[in-house]
Amino acid sequence: MTNRWTRKDLLGLRELTADDINFVLETTDAFKEVGTREIKKVPALRGKTLINFFVEPSTRTRTSFELAAFRLSADVINIGATTSSLTKGETLKDTARNLEALHADIIVLRHGSAGAPQFLANRLKASVINAGDGAHEHPTQALLDLYTMRERRGKIAGLHVAIIGDILFSRVARSNIFGLLKLGARVTLVGPSTLVPREFETLGVEVSHKIEDVLPTVDVVNLLRIQHERQRREYFPGLGEYIRLFGLTKHRAKLLKPDCLVMHPGPINRGVEIDSEVADGLQSVILDQVTNGLAVRMAVLYLCGGISA
Amino acid sequence: MKPKQNSSAGVPILDAEAIRRALHRIAHEIIEGNSNLKSLVLAGIPSRGVEIARRIAAFIREIGNAEVDSGIIDVAMHRDDVGTRKELPVVHASKLPVPLEDRTVIIVDDVLYTGRTVRAAIDAINSFGRPARIQLAVLVDRGHRELPIRPDYVGKNLPTATREQIQVRLQETDKEPDGVYLEKQ
To answer: Which residue from A83, A103, A309, B49 could staple onto B45, CB 3.0 to 4.6 Å apart?
Structure first.
């Protein structure tokens, strides 16, 4: 079998084919196995330098990429928002030049502006991995969600997935929608009409504003965090009202099919989008997502970073 | 007896019967060389090495009346040329019985050439534990070693020129009749 991967960058799932996505998922199987070994480190990216460049704060995604890089024997440097004073345009271009001057092989970028990873990728020989750009895409999160669904349910095609919450501002939702539709799943978005406008239907998904209608029919619920930091008052009904209308309470969770998976990209707002009993319940695969995220990121770093420039 | 000429793969070296005999003999040699068959683990390198290991294990079952453990050892992420090639090797999940302590692991591959794949396999096996010993079985040894590595069990020694290529075809992995061919470039 020859390798079907030829991309140096991973910027989003929109530009990937179903074949590309499946290839990443298959490669992830191999890297997940590494985590079961006595020595959980392979020399695949020995001698490569990875820069974790997180202009927006993040703990779990940054840590996950960092650990993934360690397990592939790459050297890692972390640059946070405080060590740079970037916004957009020329300053990002300057940063790009500086990263190039450091001979970085792989740059993992999280940035508040949609398109920032694309901007760097177009200008650098280094691989650029999008770790979340504005409300645009968060491809590795969607890939780990897909991987977890595939692991639990065998395949993605034919699954009915509900994505619940703040869709409008969610790069996780966007990447998930692209990935799920390409692999043949049915997607229903659920939330208040201000956060889940009907325009999303043009992507090929269904939209519902009534969670009780959707819960009994789906195979997966993916709950998104209510992003207080991005929220503007006029979009949001208020926390109390949100919980009352859209929270996955333990009472509502009884509507789910017994084998329905409960997913959440984290960090969880317990008692807001999900009750503790549900987050820690038998249907929850939230911690599997974290474990799989590590393997997915190893696969992505290996595929993008392992290709000769 | 000369194997039948195949379409495009090159000059026939071994036909299905010759491959069967070679693997049968390797199984005999493995039984002779290892008093405790229970300690054996056959570790095939994907994808043809895995199939060859399966066949050797079947012969050992038949001749030695013993069940030997088999596994898969993927070498892609342990290679020393990642980042220097246009095309990345495809990674597969390894699968070995653990623990490997006090076991004899026999690496199984179709063709032994530079020895770099075998070095990567030894490296990979060590990340699963510390076996008592590691041995090597190959269907064809074509020479041109770049590392101090030698096989313990060989189906066919075949001196080659570096510009030549050895093509192995197995029914299970290639959907073609079993055969080994020498291709001149």
So the answer is: B49
